[in-house]
Amino acid sequence: MYLRVLLFVNIYRISVPPIVLGKGKPLFEDLKNHLNLKLIKKNVFKSGVAQLIYESERTIE
């Protein structure tokens, strides 16, 4: 079910704060198939937050 929902998403906007947390936590923890994403734009704000914008290429492996 989770993979089906991911296949309907065209654009992913991920904001990354400038903080080191150690191990971190995966964004897509239960993902069993590879998603082909293409970075189409990036923004860095005065606060240091980086916004990464990806487009789905609609194929899975």
UniProtKB/TrEMBL annotation:
<protein>
    <recommendedName>
        <fullName>Bacterial bifunctional deaminase-reductase C-terminal domain-containing protein</fullName>
    </recommendedName>
</protein>
<dbReference type="InterPro" id="IPR024072">
    <property type="entry name" value="DHFR-like_dom_sf"/>
</dbReference>
